[in-house]
Amino acid sequence: MTGKAADPMPPLDWLRSFEAAARLSNFTAAAAELGLTQAAVSQHIRFLEERLKTRLFARLARGVALSPEGAAYLPHIQSAFAIIGSSTRELFEPRVLQTVTIRVPISFALLVLVPALPDLAKALPWIRLDLVTIHRPTDYDEAGSTLD
Q: What are phi and psi of 132, to 5 degrees?
């Protein structure tokens, strides 16, 4: 068994095996889903149960059933994995490119916006900026210059 005894966080591969086995009610099906052997999933569950000092599953003739402790633990693990998945998608998946049009006086564009463009491009890579300079106050009223 690996991991520090003082660390309350079990290894993620043990938790992944637990979640899949609990959801599928079968170590063999969990192993197939995770690309592991049935023996590896069984070992992960055994290590996790030893670490938590409780039985998470009742072993049945055909598959497994969650113990009351396992049933109580499962939604917390699924919620944690959902948060990790959501955060990963939010931070790292490509976003749909959106165009934002900004209508500003040329002086503001040159003095403020243009120097900020490299930082803006790094911070918001999914935004394409369409910079339109205006020259007269009446240019503010042209079609498309309002926010919808």
A: -115, 125
| CA gap 57, 8 in Å, rounded | 20
CATH class for domain 12-92?
mainly alpha
Contact 33, 24 (CB under 8 A): yes
Closest of 48, 26, 50 to residue 38, by C-alpha: 26
Instruction: Check pLDDT > 70 for residue 1.
Output: no
CATH superfamily assigned to domain 98-141? Periplasmic binding protein-like II (3.40.190.10)
Query: Which of these, 74, 59, 81, lies nearest to 23 by C-alpha position?
Result: 74
pLDDT for the residue 140: 62
All structural domains of the chain with their residue ranges: 12-92, 98-141
Pseudo-torsion of CA 76, 78, 81, 86, nearest 10°?
Answer: -110
pLDDT at residue 148 is higher than 70: no
